[in-house]
Design a protein that fits this description.
Radius of gyration: 14 Å
Structural class: alpha+beta
Oligomer: single chain
Distance between the termini: 20 Å
Number of helices: 3
Number of strands: 5
Shape: globular
Length: 153
């Protein structure tokens, strides 16, 4: 199934790509590998979900924020390669969770993105990953996720 059709069948829509908040590109291609810069939980109005997991954001909301990071990742990738059907494999994601010191469920938060990728790409969306808790993220993001994809040139 076409990836865009798959997203639509899941009731999901890619947001417009976020503008970089610094001196970097959202996506860099090196040979057959796409490196996606850290993406925040992009909301429909172009703003980002903010807050601290375990303080003013619960686990379920944080998982939704991680899914929104995943959609922002796909948006940045599509803007660079034009067609998400060129994805051969999602290699790795690294997820950062803005959380309280006693919050220990970072892997469950990042599942919001991991589960999205598996739903969208099937086995090509199963990946290696890291899930890390941090004391703050840029612009007050609740979650930030970066990704590496193998793509067809």
């Amino acid at each position: 199934m076409n990836i865009e059709d798959k997203l639509e069948s899941l009731g999901l829509k890619l947001p417009n790509p976020a503008k970089p908040a610094g001196s970097y590109k959202p996506c860099i291609i090196v040979e057959d590998t796409a490196y996606i810069s850290g993406q925040g939980p992009l909301l429909n109005d172009g703003s980002f979900a903010k807050g601290v997991v375990g303080e003013n954001i619960d686990l379920e909301t944080a998982q939704i924020h991680a899914q929104k990071c995943g959609l922002a990742i796909l948006s940045a990738l599509k803007a660079e390669i034009g067609d998400l059907n060129k994805v051969q494999q999602l290699i790795k994601i690294t997820g950062f969770v803005n959380c309280t010191n006693d919050f220990e469920k970072q892997p469950l938060v990042i599942n919001g993105c991991s589960d999205l990728m598996k739903e969208v790409f099937g086995n090509k969306g199963v990946h290696a990953r890291a899930a890390v808790g941090v004391s703050s993220l840029p612009l007050g993001f609740s979650v930030e996720i970066e990704a590496i994809f193998k793509i067809q040139l």
